[in-house]
């Protein structure tokens, strides 16, 4: 999110007596603030936080050649085209631009969407496509999703934005009882396949209870909807286009910490990435490590640490990408090879999606398992602001779990 | 000051329903009164008519004010009879809030606290806290720090919360500005919008059942009033006759969304009428108007168990929060004009000066004094440690459940194993008490 200019703030700050306040320095005085802080050029952290490791990730496509080296893109004829450097919010914007350009029925709406959205994902789209296709709604999530269901029931494509995943719950009834059951309850007479709900999710470093949640588990418990979480700009664009065009209602959760932190060379053409298909990011023979979204970069670091610690150790990292329906085969095949499994997500452990994966793997790979499956998750508490570092499944905790399954 | 829709409340007493002379809210219906009464169970006050008429609007609801923008009283009969001390308390709180906002906003810009939201331009809502009893219960949204200030929340208490330090009542768990105070009857702020509105109705019903002569005051924005919870709350309060005041701060924006995209009806006040609730619109930059309506609303709520809806018209001078840059959706000129020409603090100050209760010199020295106090408190709060890490696991339930105990143990072992991975030093007891 854009940060405001200090001069603007100061102007607005000085409500009555402008002359009393000359600068940051004079408000606070160096006596109170440490010198290094008293500079007015010091900038606050961005609203979506920092994720320092991402740019060094091996999974980030830093060059055009890197980006094009992707077999999943073969069939879309984008591999000989151009790429453009984009961060996550820009690639999401690009996907929505293509969706609107290629589908006359497609519309985008939600709170503050018209001016570009609080995370800038819809920037420029209302100017490009008009306010009847990209518009602000009144502040009502149940209304937004219900409205989207109605449009989709008429065969239109409705792309609804929920400003934060933490605020999706007013729409829970519309999603779980309506969207998810529309096809089934009508015997297939009606469906809302054109429905897509986007929402920024997960930790950002300072979000506290209500700007940090990862609610995928609630929706993964709902037959009839699909849940998708991308890890990078290239992935987001292809998965979002596929999700918009898929003939089922989909919840698309965007790890907001990656909006600016993840930058890749993204093919500018129209392409899709497969839903329900995990991706093996790194193959290995000893431990299977499963995650999705921003957690992938944490797991990458944890694996690096473990492989450094135990020479010869090799871990296989799988990005689930689609949470529902998830790619059981890829994970089962991997665990049948490695015999060990570590799963990580930020959402609380109890009844989290890791529990589902662990059970399925136990059912399918019981005789191959060399050690108990390890879950590394948020603790069973609300997401706590000041304790975030202790709460999230960070690299050390994931590393520790890998060591645990290896040394069992 | 008139509360719209008085007649709706006549429903309570069947005798009144028969009294055809009651002033009717719906202008068109004066003639219909003479027609046959509708007996269907879904309405109590309708008459048959042979005129087909769709009703798109009723008369616009007027905006009650006591002072003009220069602080001049329009009708002396409406001027509240308050003491100098009382008026100065309100004025000083408005100034304190303004300076507190300025300092904490800057602190966020410098990365010292993680988030902040100011009250710039809306300070006159403090008049509403002055119209309440201190035992009345408050359910807020987030832009009502002045209500707490008026009730006696100290600068230190504000600072401790914004710094998430060991003295924060919320134990560092929520973002800045999510204040709460048990002793001041102020329920802790929660970010999800509008959730507090039906809760306020329920709390009010509990007060009524307990026989307390108190009410609940519930604050929210005109944006939040679009949530389903708002409508549920008003309908419940009306049907259950709850002593609750719904106070809508209509500041023209919900982040970037202007009020005219938020609704097409006559603001938020008109909705109360639809629910059979006494409703009024007030100049939200006129502290005495806000004070008067709140006092009167409180009387209705407490004496007659009638919910009341107050819509206070104002303008959000500040960006929505530290995460927002409002120049992306409104002009600086617009904002500056509001600041310059309709400032609630200036208005009250002029009123005080007209009475010779305050002058330039006093103003200057009070500002200097309070700024110093705030800065003192600020640096004190900054130096305090964060809450104990055990507080990560407390209060999920009344006492820790087995899974939580196991997880706390697990974290303890992790910290022992990898002490360098965690910023233990900044937390009280440095993790020793886990
Ligand atoms: C349920 C929910 N949806 C969305 C948000 C994000 N959000 C926070 S404040 C805000 C605007 C609120 O506007 P309004 O109620 O008018 O109050 P104001 O900020 O103007 O005081 C939004 C959309 C939220 N906090 N909760």
UniProtKB/TrEMBL annotation, chain A:
The keyword Oxidoreductase applies. GO terms for biological process: branched-chain amino acid catabolic process; generation of precursor metabolites and energy; response to nutrient. The lineage of its organism: Eukaryota, Fungi, Fungi incertae sedis, Mucoromycota, Glomeromycotina. Keywords: Oxidoreductase. Pfam families: Transket_pyr (PF02779), Transketolase_C (PF02780). The keyword Metal-binding does not apply. InterPro entries: THDP-binding, Transketo_C/PFOR_II, Transketolase-like_Pyr-bd, Transketolase_C. It catalyses: N(6)-[(R)-lipoyl]-L-lysyl-[protein] + 3-methyl-2-oxobutanoate + H(+) = N(6)-[(R)-S(8)-2-methylpropanoyldihydrolipoyl]-L-lysyl-[protein] + CO2. It is an enzyme of class 1 (oxidoreductase). One of its GO terms (molecular function) is branched-chain 2-oxo acid dehydrogenase activity. Its EC number is 1.2.4.4. CDD domains: TPP_PYR_E1-PDHc-beta_like. Residues 86-261 form the Transketolase-like pyrimidine-binding domain. Its cofactor is thiamine diphosphate. This is 3-methyl-2-oxobutanoate dehydrogenase (2-methylpropanoyl-transferring). Gene3D superfamilies: 3.40.50.920, 3.40.50.970.
From TrEMBL, chain B:
The keyword Protease does not apply. Its cofactor is thiamine diphosphate. CDD domains: TPP_E1_PDC_ADC_BCADC. It is an enzyme of class 1 (oxidoreductase). The keyword Transit peptide applies. GO terms for molecular function: branched-chain 2-oxo acid dehydrogenase activity; metal ion binding. Its EC number is 1.2.4.4. Pfam families: E1_dh (PF00676). It is found in: Mitochondrion matrix. It catalyses: N(6)-[(R)-lipoyl]-L-lysyl-[protein] + 3-methyl-2-oxobutanoate + H(+) = N(6)-[(R)-S(8)-2-methylpropanoyldihydrolipoyl]-L-lysyl-[protein] + CO2. GO terms for biological process: branched-chain amino acid catabolic process. Keywords: Metal-binding, Mitochondrion, Oxidoreductase, Potassium, Thiamine pyrophosphate, Transit peptide. One of its GO terms (cellular component) is mitochondrial matrix. Residues 92-388 form the Dehydrogenase E1 component domain. Belongs to the BCKDHA family. The branched-chain alpha-keto dehydrogenase complex catalyzes the overall conversion of alpha-keto acids to acyl-CoA and CO(2). It contains multiple copies of three enzymatic components: branched-chain alpha-keto acid decarboxylase (E1), lipoamide acyltransferase (E2) and lipoamide dehydrogenase (E3). This is 2-oxoisovalerate dehydrogenase subunit alpha.
């Amino acid at each position: 999110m854009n940060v405001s200019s200090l001069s603007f703030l100061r102007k607005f700050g000085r409500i009555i007596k402008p002359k009393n306040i000359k600068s940051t320095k004079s408000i606070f005085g160096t006596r109170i603030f440490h010198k290094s802080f008293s500079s007015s050029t010091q900038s606050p952290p961005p609203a979506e936080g920092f994720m320092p490791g991402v740019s060094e990730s091996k999974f980030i496509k830093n060059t055009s050649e890197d980006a094009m080296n992707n077999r999943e893109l073969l069939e879309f004829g984008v591999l000989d085209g151009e790429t453009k450097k984009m961060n996550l919010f820009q690639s999401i914007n690009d996907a929505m631009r293509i969706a609107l350009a290629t589908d006359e029925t497609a519309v985008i709406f939600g709170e503050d969407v018209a001016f570009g959205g609080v995370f800038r994902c819809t920037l420029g789209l209302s100017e490009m496509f008009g306010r009847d296709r990209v518009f602000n709604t009144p502040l009502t999530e149940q209304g937004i999703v219900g409205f989207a269901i109605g449009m989709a029931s008429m065969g239109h494509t409705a792309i609804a934005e929920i400003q934060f995943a933490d605020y999706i719950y007013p729409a829970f009834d519309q999603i779980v009882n309506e969207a998810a059951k529309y096809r089934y309850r009508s015997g297939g007479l009606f469906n809302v396949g054109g429905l897509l709900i986007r929402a920024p999710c997960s930790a950002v470093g300072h979000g506290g209870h209500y700007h940090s949640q990862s609610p995928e588990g609630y929706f993964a418990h709902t037959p009839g909807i699909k849940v998708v979480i991308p890890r990078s700009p290239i992935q987001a664009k292809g998965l979002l286009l596929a999700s918009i065009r898929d003939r089922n209602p989909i919840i698309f959760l965007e790890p907001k910490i990656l909006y600016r932190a993840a930058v890749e060379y993204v093919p500018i053409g129209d392409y899709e990435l497969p839903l329900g298909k995990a991706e093996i990011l790194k193959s290995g023979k000893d431990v299977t490590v499963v995650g999705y979204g921003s957690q992938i970069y944490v797991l990458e670091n944890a694996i690096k640490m473990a492989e450094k610690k135990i020479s010869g150790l090799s871990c296989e990292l799988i990005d689930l990408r689609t949470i529902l329906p998830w790619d059981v085969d890829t994970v089962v095949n991997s665990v049948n090879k490695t015999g060990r499994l570590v799963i990580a997500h930020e959402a609380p452990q109890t009844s989290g999606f890791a529990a589902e994966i662990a059970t399925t793997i136990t059912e399918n790979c019981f005789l191959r398992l060399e050690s108990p499956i390890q879950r590394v998750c948020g603790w069973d508490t609300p997401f706590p602001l000041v304790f975030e570092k202790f709460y999230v499944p960070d690299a050390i905790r994931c590393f520790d779990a890998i060591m645990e399954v290896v040394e069992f | 000051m008139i509360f719209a829709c008085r007649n709706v409340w006549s429903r309570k007493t069947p005798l009144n329903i028969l009294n055809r002379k009651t002033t009717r809210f719906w202008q068109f219906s004066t003639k219909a009164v003479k027609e046959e009464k509708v007996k269907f169970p879904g309405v109590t006050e309708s008459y048959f008519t042979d005129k087909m008429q769709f009703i798109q609007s009723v008369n616009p609801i007027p905006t009650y004010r006591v002072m003009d923008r220069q602080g001049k009283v329009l009708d002396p009969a409406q001027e509240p009879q308050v003491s100098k001390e009382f008026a100065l308390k309100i004025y000083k709180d408005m100034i304190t809030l303004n300076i507190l906002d300025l300092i904490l906003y800057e602190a966020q810009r410098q990365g010292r606290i993680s988030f902040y939201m100011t009250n710039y331009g809306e300070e006159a809502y403090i008049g509403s806290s002055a119209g309440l009893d201190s035992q009345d219960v408050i359910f807020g949204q987030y832009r009502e720090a002045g209500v707490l200030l008026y009730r006696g929340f100290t600068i230190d208490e504000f600072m401790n919360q914004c710094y998430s330090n060991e003295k924060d009542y919320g134990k560092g768990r929520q973002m800045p500005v999510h204040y709460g105070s048990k002793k001041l009857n102020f329920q802790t702020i929660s970010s999800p919008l509008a959730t507090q509105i039906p809760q306020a109705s329920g709390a009010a019903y509990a007060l009524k059942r307990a026989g307390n002569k108190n009410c609940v005051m519930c604050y929210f924005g005109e944006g939040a009033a679009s949530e389903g919870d708002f409508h549920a709350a008003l309908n419940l309060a009306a049907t259950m006759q709850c002593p609750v005041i719904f106070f809508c701060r209509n500041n023209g924006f919900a982040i970037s969304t202007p009020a005219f995209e938020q609704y097409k009806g006559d603001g938020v006040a008109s909705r109360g009428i639809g629910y059979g609730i006494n409703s009024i619109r007030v100049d939200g930059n006129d502290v005495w108007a806000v004070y008067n309506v709140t006092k009167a609303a409180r009387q209705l709520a407490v004496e007659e168990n009638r919910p009341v809806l107050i819509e206070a018209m104002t303008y959000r001078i500040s960006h929505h929060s530290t995460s927002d840059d409002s120049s992306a959706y409104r002009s600086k000129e617009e904002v500056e004009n509001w600041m310059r020409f309709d400032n609630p603090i200036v208005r009250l100050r002029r009123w005080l000066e007209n009475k010779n209760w305050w002058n330039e010199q006093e103003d200057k020295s009070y500002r200097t004094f309070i700024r110093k106090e705030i800065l003192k408190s600020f640096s004190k709060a900054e130096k305090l440690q964060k809450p104990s890490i055990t507080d990560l696991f407390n209060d999920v339930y009344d006492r820790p459940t087995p899974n939580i105990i196991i997880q706390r143990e697990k974290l303890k072992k992790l910290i022992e194993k990898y002490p360098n991975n965690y910023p233990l030093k900044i937390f009280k007891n440095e993790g020793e008490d886990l």
